[in-house]
Amino acid sequence: MGSHGAQSPLRSRTDSELFLRRGADIERAKRAGKRLSCPYFNLVVAPSDAELSKVAIVVGRKLGNAVIRNRAKRRFRALARAVESQLGPYRHLVVFPRTASLSASFTDLEQMWRELLARESIIKRGRCSEGV
After folding, report:
1. What is the pTM of this model?
2. How many CB atoms lie within 10 A of CB 25?
3. How far is residue 115's CA from residue 107's CA, in Å, rounded to a whole number?
4. What gap in Å lies between CA 44 and CA 31, rounded to an integer?
5. CATH number for position 56
6. Measured in Å, how far apart are the chain's first and last C-alpha atoms?
7. Which of 70, 73, 93, 119 is the most buried (most CB within 10 A)?
């Protein structure tokens, strides 16, 4: 017998469950989504028929060399994991890190990330984001 039952509420999702990786899905989200912007990143929020929301991180060569691009991806994957339990269903988020995100502290990035997601009702405003 396999463990294909309901997912435990305490278990966090795997990367394949949280992150959107197929190019066609990312392109569809970019075309159909609402564009949001802040100093550290651009975000596209698109409707989805998937029960669990997924996040894609798109980093172009314009941002820098491979080391810099990978660092940006790691930071934004950590931000996505930090809010995964608060993400509502039926959405795809596509994140485009901006150059300013490279020099920002992780705390500043996280605060901006949470504020933008809460303002757009993608996550609920929690105590963590108040007074930070």
Report:
1. 0.80
2. 17
3. 12
4. 9
5. 3.30.230.10
6. 47
7. 93
Provide the residue range defining the domain that includes 72. 15-119
pLDDT per residue over 64-93, tens digit each? Answer: 999 999 999 999 999 999 998 888 888 899
Q: Does residue 8 sit within a domain? A: no
Distance CA 15, CA 49 (A): 19
Run of H or E including 114:
helix 106-119
Residues 49 and 116: their CA atoms lie apart, in Å, by 23
pLDDT in tens, 105-130: 999 999 999 999 999 888 876 544 44
Count other Cβ atoms within 10 Å, centred on residue 121.
10
Distance of CA 50 to the CA centre of its chain: 15
